[in-house]
Amino acid sequence: MPTKKNVYFYIYISYFFTGLILIFALIMGAVQFPHMSRIILAQANNAYELIGKEITTDIREIYEPVKNQTEILAQIHPLPGSSLNERLRHVAYLAKAIEKLPSATSAYVGYANGDFFLLRQFAKSNGGKEVFNAPPDTIWIAQSSSHDHGQLVEYLVYLDDKLKEIKRLEIPLRNFDPRQRNWYLSAMENPTRANVSEPYYFFTTGQIGITYSQKIVNEEAVVGIDIEMPTIQDIIRNHNITPSTTIALTDQQGQLLAWKNGRYDSYKPQISIRKDGSKGMPLLADQDAPVLNQIRKTEGSASVEQTHTKSAAIDVHGETWSTYQTKLHIPGGQDLNILIASPHAELLADILSMRKQNIVIFALLLLGEIGVTIYFSRLASKPLNQLSDEAKKIAHFDFHSKIEIESRIREIADLADSMKGMKATIQSFLDIASSLASESNYDRLLARVLKEMSEITGAKSGVLYLHEPQKNALNVVQIYADHQVVETDAQSIAMSDHSHPVVAACHSGSQIMQLQAGDLKIFFSALPESSHVMTLISIPLKDRNNTLSGAIALVIDAAGIDEAHLAMAEAVSGAAAVAIENQRLIQEQKALLASFIQLIASAIDAKSPYTGGHCQRVPVLTKLLAQAACRETSGPYASFNLNDDEWEELHVASWLHDCGKVTTPEYIVDKATKLETLYDRIHEIRMRFEVMKRDAEIAYWQAIANGGNTSELKEKLEAEIKQLDDDFAFIAECNEGGEFMAPDKIALIKGIAERTWLRTLSDRIGISHDEKERKNRTPEPALPAREYLLSDKPEHIFTRSARDHIPADNPWGFKIKVPENLYNRGELYNLCVTRGTLSEEERYKINEHMTQTIMMLGKLPFPRYLAKVPEIAGGHHEKMDGTGYPKRLTGAEMSIPARMMAIADIFEALTAADRPYKNGKKLSEAIKIMSFMKKDQHIDGDLFTLFLKSGIYLEYAKMFMKTEQIDEVDIQAYI
After folding, report:
1. Which of 272, 374, 407, 518 could serve as 383's disulfide partner, Cβ 3.0–4.6 Å?
2. Model-level pTM?
3. φ, ψ for residue 327 (rounded to 5)?
């Protein structure tokens, strides 16, 4: 039979009265509400048109006068003359133009020779006033850059309200050329009319605005007038219909020029990086304005006539909006769009409120009719309903409220008491489990486990053991007596000792024993003297796989324990075992990762005797600098701090910062001379000189045998031998490398290379397959073959394969120039290296360790708290000015830890005494070099100052530098 639906008995009584009232309410609402809504929405459309016209009028009053004044100035050439003084005599023309234009802040002229003259009404500017450091009574400021006797000079001239000069100040050159500005270029391209620019940052004040500009008639010059964008934003901000009304002014490309976003009018005009990576004013499509964006989509799909003025109602995210759009013609520029939208909920707020009031009245009538009927029946069922609600809260893990339900019915009262106890037990268990699971410190976790178990059972003393599988024993790790850590002589317990109650519990489950206090002193020497019976509870700790993690022994100052408390303790022991095991695994994995990372770094250092210790010293210096930044209480790093995860992230990144060096050939890292590869090829060159010396002696004896003059031949031989010795000594000296090689030395090397020697044996036998392939690029000459003493041969070129190329659109963002060849081992090519010992190809191979580091670390699945390791490790060769390697990041694009590591890497490299091509710099020399790097914006200036002020440089020097390298440094000269 079908199951009958259970219904409350008072529902039947209220059906009739409720139905009548609801039908009446529906009829009234269906007739009145739509009619009143149409009237209100029509009034809103009229208000939109009025606002649109007002905005149009206000904006035209900004643009039109500026355009007209620009055209007037272009006709009269306001600043004749070529010097600053001549132009100042006619500055009144510009002053009158600005005074007539409330929206204009400055007017200026840019000349074809690069001269520039600007007059600014100082009080009108919305920002950037601190740039000028103007004296009192300054009303006008003239900015001028002009050529004086062939030299470009720049001045600031401060003027009072009568345009009288107050002060003149020559300022450093700002590298400002008006001919490169968009307003100048557009005016020159369209010289017959005034042109309006796109919004941009003003060069001096940093404000965003637009410029009207026009070429001056019959002159190679352009006049311009600036309007600041906040002026336009103020126009939009002053209009409103409802609190959430949103109004936007956009151009044809969707750039957001002004925006009032309802109650939250936080929009400030600025040029920034958009979501697509381009620069410009923010796009409306990138803002959180779904209504306005939907209006623009409607505009894009309609014709020009249709979109000139249009009202519509649209639905966005389930909410209905009234919208309005119109176009605004800008003199000399593209049309702008005015978009307005208001939610129906606010437009119809009054009628909705009226409808709510009617609903309330009808509801009161309904309640009045049925209230008396249902009162007594609900009185009896109320406690049951409350218990039902509490059961639902427990099902949804809501333990915030207490169960305080009273009833005169005994069964309901007993049920309420039982549910109250159940809720308290479940809440306690969940709180303890959550507390244990959230604890990330291993030692605190162990202490908390023992504390929680003690509080559950009421124990005053306890011991926590952890199982050590290698020794098959239980080790004591935490001991508490009266909730305090105490000294104890407790020893580890062998798992083979089955007589011990804790071991027995590990094998067969929880154990409860009643013992005299004296007997318990075997396990707890800190127990007070007592003769009464106490209870020892031994509870094993087993994880989710039923694997033994440890055990807890608790002493209760009583002859027994409540079964409910014991059950609770056993339930918590499972959560405790899982939490302990998880933390042990995490600690072991972290230790393994740290050891593996240091193993890699040690292997890189061990790979080359010349860079030994670099990968170990850089982490030390990086952490010292980070600690100094964390200690700062003022300045740029007052708020800098690292939590435990960020410290670990920095530790891992600093140890792995050169992990890419595992791919760098050892002979390049260790290259001490220019001809060195797997061996130093200077020995081949020496042997050729030896052959040539032997050839000279043989020629000498042959000439004597043929009757030659012995003394002349002897003199000639000695001269040739000396020349060969001198030439080889010079080549050997060049092979050692240095800071700079002069052009005359390169010419001398090439002259020596022109000498020839005779080879009688084939150089294509007994060699590797790869070398033979390179030699076979040219035919083998007939033997004996005469060869140059030094040469760049085709087989010296190692071509670069496709996999060694890095495309411009690579996924890592590398911006590097890749040499054409993989290697060039030409003898002349390498001997003529001007600095150091590395060729261009070898230097790229050295630098390639950075790209390899980033690619290698990018492939590792780092956990979330180590997600920045690739960025920190891969950024220490970048520079603040964006000229670094390999991504050319600017300082703003680098994290602070990456900038710290850059300083640490450079300082370690300068002071290291284990490089093959140089000695370690003294402390003063290294700091002086880094000061130049700070000046050139290669390193972070604030961090370098902190590096010196904190004394880190000296602390590191005492740890790792030789005594003779540590000299006096006046750090005040570099701060």
Report:
1. 407
2. 0.49
3. -105, 150
